[in-house]
Amino acid sequence: MQIFYMNRYDAHRIAPSPVVHVRGLCESVVEADLVEALEKFGNICYVMMMPFKRQALVEFEDLDSAYRCVLCGTKEAVYIAGQQAFFNYSTSKRITRPTNADDPNSGNKVLLLSIQNPLYPITTDVLYTVCNPIGNVLRIVIFKRNGIQAMKAKAALNGADIYAGCCTLKIEYARPSRLNVIRNDNDSWDYTKPFLVRRERGKGRQRQAILGEHPSSYIDNGYGSHCPLLPLPSNNRFKRSSHEIPEVVSYPLPQTSSYMGHASSSVAMVSGLHPTKMNCIRIFNLFCLYGNIEKVKFMKSVPGTALVEMGDEYAVDRAITHLNSIKVFSKRLNVCVSKQHAVIPSQVFELEDGSSSYKDFAMTRNNRFTSAGQASKNIIQPPSCVLHFYNVPPCVTEDELLQLCKEHDVPGFIKFKVFDAKPSSKTISGLLEFDSKTNAVEVLTVLNHYQIRIPNGSNPYTLKLCFSTSSHL
């Protein structure tokens, strides 16, 4: 049998493996679509979605099943959710499971949901609306780490977006076999015990959840109109048009616009700012990753403290989630909600670096959330040691970028990678890896939106930086 495999696979560069690497998936694909399309080749043990890369790993029960899958893909088109996919063996022999309780036949009824790119608030109401049509949900508990994770009552939703282009679900079996809920509120809910201490949920209204538009149209109540749901999972769910969707899920809206216990304000208060190295523009460079910035004002009465008015309270919450307690220029930031609801340009003074203590960013073109389409392109990430750069002229080299860091007295990167671009492309993009997360934060704070001028160029290129989903190069 071993000789048979060697003869059969010797044409492949990658050694045969029960794990198949799937590429070319459509953005809306979920785990159930992969299983539905590929189970004809053999029993599938495990699926790992990579939604932002439009890829997945599929582990078959045996090598023969994986061989049939890869071989079929080389001879004819294999479609997953209506789009042709491409297959090759993975370098892994087994997909690493994040928990020890990953067996769907183990009897564990608790799932761990990781919400990737949580651009909008995720409450128990949202998760209940998404999951209950698939199976009766008993309890939900939400807790924060990097992004939001929730455990509750996989294949129909794993890899799906709750809202268009963001809040992507990654679902695994959890270690606990039961959830303990002590109160009913935004962060936890026991649907079997309605008598627990609870907030008023309101009468609710008809609205759509998973894969609809984002939940805010920037109006007073924080919720606006929504596009139709994609149909619930079925054998041909990607072949149905929006008017064929059977019904809309009822989602009770919170009566207050507060989120995760934070006050309803679009102004953040930031303290712990370096007295000589931080100014309004550098605050903008860092905070704009999490929402639009309207105004920034340093407080004369409280040195090292500034008020940042953002596009809405959800942007403030994202900034708090990802920036509170990080170190910038050896000073630890404290980010919290301000009692003020707007930044007033009063008591303007000169900072130690000579710049103004107040700046209005409402009309800047560097805000990244000015439309729903633009907002959906932003992957909300916590600070990391890898920066993604883009909008750089192709003539700029690695050495020139290192020299740029040196000229601005910020740490240089240790690894550099440029993504392949079309010959006609006017810009390049890539990744920069630094020694530490703190170094990457400082470089982004200083060099984000730096104007790169090239010889004989009519307009400068605006260097754009953000935190990468990659942990290393």
From TrEMBL:
Q: Which domain of life is it from?
A: Eukaryota
Q: Has UniProt tagged this entry with the keyword Repeat?
A: yes
RRM domain location is 18-92, 266-340
GO terms in the biological process aspect are: mRNA processing
Concerning InterPro entries, the annotation shows: HnRNP-L/PTB, HNRNPL_RRM, Nucleotide-bd_a/b_plait_sf, RBD_domain_sf, RRM_dom
Q: One Pfam family for this entry, by name?
A: RRM_10
Q: Per the record, what is one GO cellular component? A: ribonucleoprotein complex
MF terms in GO: RNA binding
Keyword entries, A-Z: Isopeptide bond, Phosphoprotein, Repeat, Ribonucleoprotein, RNA-binding, Ubl conjugation
- Which PANTHER family does the record associate with it? MATRIN 3/NUCLEAR PROTEIN 220-RELATED (PTHR15592)
**UniProt-recorded name of the protein:** RRM domain-containing protein
